[in-house]
Amino acid sequence: MSSTVPAILQHVVEGGRLSFEDGVTLLRSADLLALGRAADAVCKRLHPEPYRTYNIDRNINYTNVCTAVCDFCAFYRKVGDTEAYVLDRPVLLEKIRETVALGGDQILMQGGLHPHLSMEWYEDLLTEIKTNFPQVNIHGFSPPEIHHFTKVAKLPLRTVLERLKKAGLGSLPGGGGEILVDRVRKAMTRGKVMTDDWLNVHRVWHELGGRSTATMMFGHIETLEERIEHLERVRQLQDETGGLTAFISWTFQPEHTDMADVPASGAFEYLRTQAVSRLYLDNVPNIQSSWVTQGPKIGQLALYFGANDMGSLMIEENVVASAGTVYYLSLDEIKRAIREAGYVPRQRNVYYEYIDAEERAEPALLTVL
Fold first, then answer.
1. Model pTM?
2. Which end of the chain offers a freer environment for a tag, N or C, measured as fewer CB atoms within 10 Å?
């Protein structure tokens, strides 16, 4: 097969699988519109329905105490810092109550790697949440957290996941993925899970019948080849388990971090990388737009660059906001963005099942793009 960009794009649009070299070639391409057209074609082949989705959840960071040191993180605090916290249980439950009142069916619950919280503390937390809100899915604990639990509790990974699932954990987020290349991870973090163990948390969770998402934070010290290596590792995991429901990528937000001198990637790089991720991850069914980091207009435009989901209403978000990036959209604004892009908005759950009544109104075609 030819290695030219048009030939590669034709191959993947017709259902072929990209090679590692193909992926790198596409990431180096400056023809953003060609990449977008191809990603949109693949997205429509996978999702020919007239809908594009969103969900309503809340990102609850139960603690900001973390033993890991990540140069890219403006959120974490060390034990004993004046700004360190662990949310009181009534406060956390009230956040969930507010989410349910707004129509939410899920919470995204993540925190730092706290050195003093026991396995029983997490089990009690899950049990109390499910007792009070049995209808709410707990999309909780990133792979770095799960890996940390095994060290604190001195228990095998499978045992930890089995106990969390029994206590009420519903699905796993893909947080802490950054770039799944150990060179990058070692250069940016200390005391945090490496690539193979990050992937293995997902693998074992999938073996237990669970579902999860994968993420990528790019635009810092990684090379384009390492960006594709990240996608390759995700694709290999999905080939093996089939347990990933979605992939979400976003650009590194450098403000207020120890890497503040790294130039922030712009919309061009974001859209190019998202388009390539849709083309490369042929076995991951859903791609989520990142309007939280890109803003509403680029988040909307991402629906033409391979995304079929606008992500969450994001009632609360603390980690990205700590780095100075603060975008908020109301539910009506998310729905309008989807309609303007030519689709009917539908609310979905973590499994990408529709949980609302189908709207009868025809979508409004976007005329400004």
1. 0.90
2. N
Is the distance from CB of 300 to CB of 308 less than 8 angstroms? no
Where do the H-state alpha helices sit in the chain? Answer: 5-13, 20-27, 32-46, 89-101, 119-132, 143-153, 157-167, 182-188, 195-207, 224-241, 267-280, 291-294, 296-301, 319-322, 331-340
Query: Which tens digit of pLDDT belongs to each residue from 121-176?
Result: 999 999 999 999 999 999 999 999 999 999 999 999 999 999 999 999 999 999 88
Render pLDDT for 345-357 as a digit per residue (tens, 0 to 9): 999 999 999 999 8
- Kindly report the backbone phi and psi dihedral angles of residue 102, in degrees, each rounded to the nearest multiple of 5, phi listed first: -90, 5
- Residue ranges of the binding site: 66, 70, 72-73, 142, 178, 290, 312
Binding-site residue ranges for (3R)-3-methyl-D-ornithine: 142, 290, 312
**Domains of the chain and any CATH numbers:** 49-347 (3.20.20.70)
Annotated binding site for S-adenosyl-L-methionine: 72, 178
Q: Would you say the C-alpha torsion 152, 155, 158, 161 has a positive or negative sign?
A: negative
